[in-house]
Amino acid sequence: MRIANLHGRLVLLTTSGALDVHEASEGRFPSDPQEVYTDWEAFRSWARNQDPAPPAETSPEEYGLPVPAPRQIFAIGLNYIDHAMESGVEPPEVPPVFTKFASSLTGPSGEIVLPGETVDWEVELVAVIGRGGRGIPAGQAWEHIAGLAVGQDLSERTVQLRPPSPQFSLGKSYAGFGPVGPVVVSPDEFADPDDLEVVCRVNGEVVQHARTSSMIFSIPQLVEHLSGVAELLPGDIIFTGTPAGVGLGCTPPSYLRAGDVLETRIAGIGTMRHTMVRGAAG
């Protein structure tokens, strides 16, 4: 099952095209793409009878942000050994957690304003919560995941790492710094949802290429860890971490510039495409 935000309305992708969920369900389910997660189990049962489209990767141009107003955004740092090594730190024994503020979220295509000279890319798999809860065991975690999407954890490194205390959440929350999309794909569409190819390109050049099976903490482990502290709510999203290849890890460091085209792809989900533009200080 693949759902999307088409012109602000929730659609289910079917073999005959995008099905407007509110109209097709005769008002049973909302047109608001965010609200569907509050009744996820019922929606999933209904959607299975609507001739869902077969698995296929999706391009970004038509669609908006598929999870436009999550109540909580969790983000995981250093979740690939190679990224921890390029960052000069030991791989973590517990997941490092921060947040991106909701105003940073944007859709899968368009322009992103550069607020400074040290904006970095980070391709990430995003997990969307369908059924919330506390104390969710890892063995049951996939039952709580509505679907997976492509994400970018864009980071202004100067702000993020400014002493005396790093400001991860602020440095990663400028407008447009949280692209998600182009669709949300239910876990049952993947042969193995814990092993997906992730790729990031800048101006066509591959800068990151990995598989999510290389994550230190899998999605089930992250769900268990997070729900052991905070109640996970329907429609929450989890940025699961980035592999090696970020600009900060280059010698010398390399950052995004105005005119750069950033492409972010996860196999089985689709591609996001954004163009960088100059800001007041960019």
UniProtKB/TrEMBL annotation:
Taxonomy, superkingdom: Bacteria
Any coiled-coil regions, as ranges: none
Annotated GO MF terms: hydrolase activity; metal ion binding
Record keywords: Hydrolase, Metal-binding
Pfam families, per database record: FAA_hydrolase
Residue intervals of the Fumarylacetoacetase-like C-terminal domain: 73-276
Family affiliation: Belongs to the FAH family.
Protein name in the entry: Fumarylacetoacetate hydrolase
Source organism phylogeny: Bacteria, Bacillati, Actinomycetota, Actinomycetes, Micrococcales
